[in-house]
Amino acid sequence: MITAGCDVGSLTAKAVILKDGAIVASEVIRAKTKPEDSAREVMDLALKKAGLEMGAVEYCVGTGYGRKHIPFVNDVESEIACHGRGAVWQVPSAKTVVDIGGQDCKAIRVDESGNVTRYVYNDKCASGTGRFLEIIAEALDIGLEELGDISEHSTKKLTLSNQCVVFAETEIISLVNEGAEIPDIIRALHNAVASRAASLAKSIVVESDVVMSGGVAKNAGMFRALSEALGVPLRQIGDPQINGALGAALLAADKLKSGPPPPLRQAQCNARREA
Amino acid sequence: MIVAGCDVGSLTSKAVIMRDGRILNSALIKSKAKPWESADEVMKSALEGAGVSMKEIVFCVGTGYGRDKMKFINEAVTEIACHGKGARWLLPTAMMVIDIGGQDCKAMRLDRDGRVVKFMTNDKCASGTGRFLEVMARVLGVSLEELGEMSARAQAPITLASACTVWAQADVIAHLNNRVPIEDIAAGVNNAMASRMAVLANSVGVERDVCMTGGVAKNDGVVSTLEKLLGVRIKRIRRYDPQMAGAIGAALFAHEKAGGGLR
Amino acid sequence: MMEDFREVARVLNNRFVQKWKDEGKKVVGYTCSYVPDEIFYAAGILPYRVRGFGAGAMTIGDTYFGPFICSLPKCMLQLAGQGDFDFLDGAIITPGCDSMRRLDECWRKMHDDTKEHMPGFFFHFGVPHKYTEYSVKWFVDETRRLIRAAESHFNVAIKNEKLLEAIKVHNVTRELMNRFDEIRTRKDPPVAGADSLAIVLAGTAMPRDDYNRLLGDLVEEIGKSAKKLNGRKRLMLLGSANDDVDLVKIIEGERALVVADNLCFGSRFYSDLVSEEGDPVEELAKRSLAHNDCPRMYGEYRERLKKIKEKVATAGVDGVILQNIRFCDLHGSENGLFERDLEKEGIPCMRLEREYGPIVESGRMRMRIDAFLERLG
Amino acid sequence: MRRETREYNFDWMLWSAFSSASRIKMGTEKEYRTVLKYIPYFRGIAEAMLGTGEAGQKFIDCCAAYLDNLVNARERGLKTAITTFCFSPAIMYALDIMPICLEVLTVMQTLSYKRGTVEFLDYCNEVGYTETSCSAQRGSLGAYLAGVGAEIDMIVTDTPGVCDTNANAFSFASAYLDKPFFQLDMPPQLDGERSDDYHIGDFKGLIAFLEQHSGRKLDLDRLREVMREIEKQDELVAEIEDLARLVPNPLPVPFNFMVHGSRFLFAGMKECTAALEAMLKLGRENAARGISGLTGGVEKLRGFWCYIDHYTQSMRLWQMLDRNGICYEGNILSRSWAMNAPHVKEFGKEDAAYSLDLTDLDSMIRSMALLNSRMPMVKSIRGPYDAPNMWLEDNLNLARMYRADFIVYNGTPGCRNTWGMVKLMARDTEKAGIPTFIMYADAFDDRVESWEATQERFEEFLKVRGLL
Ligand SMILES: Nc1ncnc2c1ncn2[C@@H]1O[C@H](COP(=O)(O)OP(=O)(O)O)[C@@H](O)[C@H]1O
Ligand SMILES: Nc1ncnc2c1ncn2[C@@H]1O[C@H](COP(=O)(O)OP(=O)(O)O)[C@@H](O)[C@H]1O
Ligand code: SF4
Ligand code: SF4
Ligand code: SF4
Fold first, then answer.
1. Residues B195 and B251 occupy one common structural domain
2. Is A116 close to D464, i.e. CB distance below 8 A?
3. Which residue does chain D place closest to A122, by CA atoms?
4. Residue D139 CB contacts under 8 Å (≥ 6 apart), including other chains
5. Which atom of ligand 4 is nearest to C69's Cα?
6. Which of B193, B202, B232, B233 to mutate to test the interface with D (most CBs of D within 10 A)?
7. Residues 6+ apart with CB under 8 A from C377
8. Contacts of C326 in chain B (CB under 8 A)
9. What contacts A266, CB < 8 A, 6 or more positions away?
10. pTM for this one?
11. Are C358 and A124 a contacting pair at CB < 8 A?
């Protein structure tokens, strides 16, 4: 049985191909302006890696921000359901999933079979998301991949006061001007984002084991900061960024077991807003 | 007598060189991480163009976000006062100034002598600033100039959930994906911006003539929506680039402080 | 003396509190200037005004409170949840405003989760929003309810004569503070607004007898001081609660002085004497409800405006800064009215909205204040 | 504010829309189209209301009658008072004072005009009122502050102690417009002698205030007449609420709004009784046929709103519910606490309810004071949310009684009171086994969260939680 999951996020697009309960290929690319283009490209790459044709995929589930525009899915699921499912597959004892992606941050509680029992999104504003990290990394001219390592070298505790992403940038620049050390700033940045995510998670009551998913989990500094803010150890998963796509592929397999696939969904293209 | 004004803003840095109250040259660069570097560079470029050396500058006033960090200035004045002064020079009948810069927007009322008598700023949240427009222009894949022009062609402007720049961006992407014409989105973006600004302007009390300064003054979409919302005509500035208003004001202050009379 | 005050303003569990606790005595926290300190003084318990000062992260505050809430109570909860208020033996929450009253539930629920950091005595103290015969009656009952609860929890007796004595001691503070005000508003005063705030803060966080003694000495000394802070613009500070000396320092900078205020950690702490005659509980209740300095007493804006105009005149204020914490509706909107009505009288005003919490980046605030000072000439 | 907005009188605009709508008889399609041409943006609400037949028609008649009096208040010798919702206006009608309930007018305006109340919302900020405050009042308050509505004689609020943000709007208005101000203050406990005494003392104070500023004396017979009408209305509301317990629920989605609109603005008016009678009639007919009040006729889910329902423009929320076969079991603000209300009996909450005693002036004043202290918001969110008779208990009881499958919180970011405790409340209702959804939209301002985003998150909730 071959199924696929395609997760078109705000920053990246991800695809996972699953064969008889094992991942045969996965791929991550930067998202393009049009979600359908991202979807096609990432799926093609993943299929190529797996040495398969699209026709071989028996069921495909789309998820993520751009899910309604993926041209080749049989069904769509929300990221919440996918991240929950994916996390439980990777860590069967998982009870709570904290997913920090490019544009939002969510905390999800799941039961043993990966069904979502409660969830919350980030409230108020965009602080507490991967976007926050991106903007600052860009301002400081540091690659996203380096953030984690750099924060390891922090020696002094700093705090950021601004909750607004855009203003935090100014604040950070003024910290640099005042001679603060970059590692300390990055660490403070991690703590700020982690603290927002942690209060979100705590509001639905955190139960161990806790899994961190989403692209931001690849940042070791964030991983540690979140664990500290939550006050519990986090469970590491293979590639946290593909967790959503993996969940989608798993859900596709579930659906396939319960009946024949529906025809491909028409992507919503010209749904001009209702007047 | 040669004087200079230097305005280091959050996004752009500007410098104006003035001789006896006339602008010799000006320069505009993108601001760097360190304000003193921006100041040095923009001054250098303005001086070069004017064919003047730093030594010839009798007095220099610094303003803007990085005003306290510049090395070569004689005095620092806030951008509120400088924009007021600069606006009066750009539009001698101005009694009110609306300045939208990169990270904040301000509304001020002037007295007959061009002094700021009342002002309000918005700097709690990035929505409602030039930065907001930049982010939106990037998402729409158009230039800032185009963003301004496009809204004139809009049929049915969208309403933007404008509470947050970052989320408004997500909203714009969603509309793009739904194939909403880009003009309608652009108009929605400009409307959101203008209506935030209108609240600020109305709360200091609108008085004619209104002069718009700062980079966003060059966005005609915002300016004309603002006209509609405020119910006044906003005179388009021809005398000089309105984005330079702060630096011009600073130079005028320098001129006065160095003993030059008012022109 | 001044050093003591400055220290108490910076440290939550300060030396004086520690010493008090070491002597085996109790401390009860409260959140609002509408709680009569006298009751606890009479019981031999130290009343301590809970603050939000020094909270860095907001992990706990944001877990329980919703997103659109004033950050002052959030910071208080954060500190409580971090154990910074573990020295408290009791806490009293009042419905000062909607954000503050929810500290009651949020604190209790945090305790449900952690089983920690909640004092044994926890009391919701209902303060009416108006001064009438029946509201005073109700509030007297409420105060008696508080007294009974404290008596039974702490196993003490709060007798009338003790209360009368407490009222006297607290009136001494009020009178000393009025004298201090007179010094502070002199032409070239010897003391800056930042220190004035530290003095008030200390009053809410140390034993009253020690405080009166130190304050008496201080007033004596600076009354004679030859130090002159001259050539500065004189400002008045109105609006939301502020317990951060640094904020006043930023506002004052090099060129301004805060010479008067109408703040919660400010003149509201010492304005209005309590009558030393009659039933002490009734007199305390009357003073609280008649105390209309805070916009929570609805419909009394005109009286507040009048008081402020008087202060502007007596203190020779050049300009008024109307600040409020984001989401503080009470002060946020009243500041709009003050601005309109004071400007009408030719008194320059500036509104300033801010976030409560550590002040890291002060550039923006500085810019606006500088522009305001430029306007003052 | 745009110039053209300033040129139209706010109340008059509403009056012209509603009175045109009230002229739309069930008559011909042509007639209907013609009238709609004059009120283009009114279409959404007109269709939704009129879709319920006679009930909707009568309700719109009632709105029109009210607005007619408001627009002509001066000519008819009526005084005007700005009031809060969760305040029973009957006492005002008895004194010939037109209540102007800001929240309800905000809703009317949001429902009927394309730009909703945006300009008025902003106008309040422009004159110095804080931008983070509750949009429910700001929406129409702006019009009165700008002087484009009826002239105001006095200001009465009953939310101090319950919702300070709201009370604050009224005290701002009184200072800004320089008009007499009265507050009914609510102590943190609802029942018990102490609280009752307070409520009654306060209410007497209110009567004295109203008499003073209207120059009229409270007339015993007028009051009794109005209260008789309320008695009838309470009876009708109780029966309508009882019908909502049936599965499927025979009531159409908009009924809930009509019930609470009635109680906050039209209590004591004869037209209101007629509307409620028509609503009950339709409900009973549907019940007899065993059909759901939803347009599709099939009820898939039942939802209870633990705070305000999401109005915004064109009634989109309600249309979405209707489309999805979700039966709207009302919200906490639409519930009456009259002694005969079904939930009062069901949960033995007689001490938290009121009954009307028309024997003499004293008993009538006492009844009115208690009625007022038991208006929904004023009743349920004044004290700690988990105290007896407060938000949590009421929500759980009502949600269970109406067999709700899920609970939704919606408010406005200006609502300190509920945002301060909603996370805790949601935790508790979840613990009790009822999925709970917190909406981040503003019920009165589209610019906080777009409808598209709100809708998407709502549907996601239904799906992820396995409800639909
Ligand atoms: N290699 C990496 N190292 C550290 N952080 C990363 C890396 N790649 C992505 N991120 C972080 O992950 C975020 C994107 O997460 P992702 O889950 O892909 O988002 P989305 O699904 O919304 O597109 C970025 O904003 C960035 O902060
Ligand atoms: N040609 C242009 N057309 C439209 N908008 C412009 C143009 N140039 C600049 N802007 C706007 O001006 C803003 C920068 O304004 P500026 O006054 O230079 O900011 P600051 O002084 O804060 O650095 C940009 O964010 C952009 O939105
Ligand atoms: S403060 Fe910044 S991040 Fe927050 S809502 Fe505003 S723009 Fe967005
Ligand atoms: S500052 Fe305002 S909102 Fe905050 S606790 Fe005080 S009165 Fe309440
Ligand atoms: S929504 Fe909130 S702030 Fe508004 S009236 Fe209701 S309780 Fe008050």
1. no
2. yes
3. D440
4. D102, D105, D106, D109, D110, D116, D117, D120, D121, D444, D445
5. 3
6. B202
7. none
8. 124
9. none
10. 0.91
11. no
pLDDT single digits (tens) B123-167: 656 667 788 888 888 888 888 888 888 888 888 888 876 556 666
ipTM score for this prediction: 0.88
Q: Which residues on D lie below 8 Å from C295 (Cβ)?
A: 168, 171
Ligand nearest to the CA of A220: 1
d(CA B73, CA B75): 6
**Minimum CA distance residue for ligand 5 atom 1:** D415
pLDDT averaged over chain C?
Answer: 93
Q: Is C277 exposed, middle or buried (0-12, 13-18, 19+ CB in 10 A)?
A: exposed
Is C374 in Cβ contact with B78 (below 8 Å)? yes
Does the domain made of D4-199 have the CATH classification 3.40.50.11890?
Answer: yes
Q: Which of C351, C363, C374 comes nearest B81 by C-beta? A: C374
Using the predicted structure, report yes or no on whether residue B108 has a pLDDT greater than 80.
Answer: yes
What type of residue is A117?
T
Measured between CB atoms, which of D430, D452, D457 is closest to A118? D430
Task: Name the burial class of residue A179, with classes exposed (0-12), middle (13-18) and buried (19+) by CB atoms within 10 angstroms of its CB.
Answer: exposed
pLDDT for A270: 37
Dump pLDDT digits (tens) for C52-81: 998 877 889 988 998 889 989 999 999 999
Residues B254 and B129 both lie in one domain: no
Q: A2-81+242-274 has which fold?
A: Nucleotidyltransferase; domain 5 (3.30.420)
CATH number at residue C69: 3.40.50.11890
- Across the interface, whether the CB atoms of C57 and A160 are under 8 A apart is answered no
Nearest-atom index, ligand 1, CA of A219: 4
Chain B positions contacting chain C at CB under 8 Å are 65, 77-81, 104, 115-121, 123-124
High-pLDDT (> 90) share of chain D, %? 64
Per residue in C146-197, pLDDT tens?
999 999 999 999 999 999 999 999 999 999 999 999 999 999 999 999 999 9
Domain boundaries, position B213: 94-236
d(CA D248, CA D242): 12
Q: Are B30 and B50 members of one domain?
A: yes
Q: Is residue C177 part of a domain?
A: no
Query: pLDDT per residue over C211-229, tens digit each?
Result: 999 999 999 999 998 899 9
Instruction: Give the amino acid at D33.
Output: R
Whether A268 and chain B come into contact, CB under 8 Å, resolves to yes
- Fold held by A93-236: Nucleotidyltransferase; domain 5 (3.30.420)
Residue count (chain A): 275
Q: Where in chain A is the domain with CATH 3.30.420.40?
A: 2-81+242-274, 93-236
C104 within a domain of the structure (yes/no): yes
What was the pLDDT predicted at A272?
A: 34
Cα–Cα distance, D48 to B213 (Å, whole number): 48
Within 8 A of D421 by CB-CB distance, chain C residues are 66, 102, 105-106
Residue C296 has pLDDT above 50, yes or no: yes
B136 and B189 in a single domain? The answer is: yes
Instruction: Transcribe C107-118 into DSSP letters.
Output: HHHHHHHHS-S-
| Of the partner residues A161, A163, A202, the one whose CB lies closest to the CB of residue C358 | A161
Say yes or no: B138 and B156 in one domain.
yes
The model's pLDDT over D5-18, given as tens digits with 9 standing for 90+, comes to 888 889 998 998 88
Overall number of domains in chain C = 1
C297 CB within 6 A, ligand 4:
no
Residue that has been written with the tokens 């009031």 in this structure: D83
Q: Does the beta-carbon distance from D448 to B163 stay under 8 Å?
A: yes
- Token pair of D21 as six digits: 């709508």
Ligand closest in space to the Cα of B103: 2
The answer to whether residue D433 neighbours chain A at the CB level (below 8 Å) is: no
Q: Sorting pLDDT into bands at 50, 70 and 90, what band is B263?
A: very low
Which residue in chain C has the smallest CA separation from D387? C105
Distance (Å) from CA A166 to ligand 3 centroid: 7
**Whole domain around residue C91: which residue ranges?**
2-160
- Number of domains within chain B: 2
Per-residue model confidence (pLDDT) at position D412:
87
Model pLDDT, residue D454: 84
Check: CB of residue D310 under 8 Å from CB of residue D441: yes
Q: What's the CATH code of the domain at B183? A: 3.30.420.40
